[in-house]
Design brief:
This protein has 248 residues and is an alpha/beta fold. The chain is 30% helix and 17% strand. The protein has 2 domains: 4-133, no CATH class; 146-232, no CATH class.
């Protein structure tokens, strides 16, 4: 829990951004502290800490994974955040790890359904003074990587540097009802190298170049998908690229 002392410490060290993740699947959360109460209290503590220090540090943002079951709860989430110093919300889709969760994903929607959902979400957050960053909910031929587009990487707790959150550890994911093994992939280790050296690694630079131009295989619209072995893991794709981003 982010209490007053923690909030003031974050402001004191000059953290640029603090993202708060909201657990919205059950509101309130039976048998536990109401997650929205905890969230709004944390946002208030950060707002108070900025005022106390006379600082603009620690921009407060919210991260929300939207699903079929929690979509109707968004208005309650918005009400709990309004006026508490939250500047933006990053909405993302569920990445299921089992078939039960797969049934709860919101995508893919038709183009008309997508317009309706995005418009409603955008309006709800905008009216609360919170800038929304929304994902696509319909399948699209246009592809891009948010990590590459924003010149970002993911540093794991042990110092290993992955190109994104998805590839920072191994697990099984469900892609539109199809199981896929995610193989962790790293371009360096901060215990042995500096971040600038890792960023300029001969393997990492062309990887980002390729993703920035969407030059990688696409599994979702391939007519060989059902019989393809490459699509079962992220280790490599049919173009010979590793890691494979073709199902992301």
């Amino acid at each position: 829990m982010l209490d007053r002392s923690a909030a003031r410490a974050l402001v004191a060290v000059g953290a640029d951004i603090v993202d708060l993740s909201v657990e919205a699947e059950n509101v309130p959360w039976p048998g536990r502290v109401n997650s929205l109460e905890t969230l709004s209290r944390a946002a208030e503590e950060l707002l108070e800490a900025r005022k106390h220090a006379g600082s603009n540090a620690c921009e407060t943002r919210i991260a929300l994974v939207v699903t079929r079951s929690n979509l109707p709860l968004v208005p309650e989430i918005v009400r709990s955040l309004k006026g508490r110093g939250v500047s933006a919300v990053s909405v993302s889709n569920l990445l299921p790890t089992d078939m039960e969760a797969d049934a709860n994903r919101l995508y893919p929607l038709s183009l008309d359904e997508e317009v309706a959902v995005r418009s409603k979400l955008y309006t709800q957050f905008q009216h609360a003074g919170i800038k929304p960053e929304l994902p696509r909910f319909a399948l699209s031929t246009e592809r891009h990587c948010n990590f590459v587009r924003s010149e970002s990487c993911f540093i794991r707790w042990d110092g290993l540097v992955a190109p994104c959150l998805r590839l920072c550890h191994g697990y099984s994911e469900i892609v539109l009802g199809r199981e896929k093994e995610v193989v962790p992939w790293f371009f360096g280790d901060l215990k042995r190298q500096g971040l600038a050296e890792i960023w300029d690694d001969p393997g990492y630079v062309p990887f980002r170049w390729r993703l920035r131009r969407a030059l990688y295989a696409s599994c979702l619209d391939c007519n060989l998908l059902r019989s393809c072995e490459y699509a079962k893991t992220t280790e490599s794709d049919c173009w010979g690229d590793s890691p494979a981003c073709s199902d992301c």
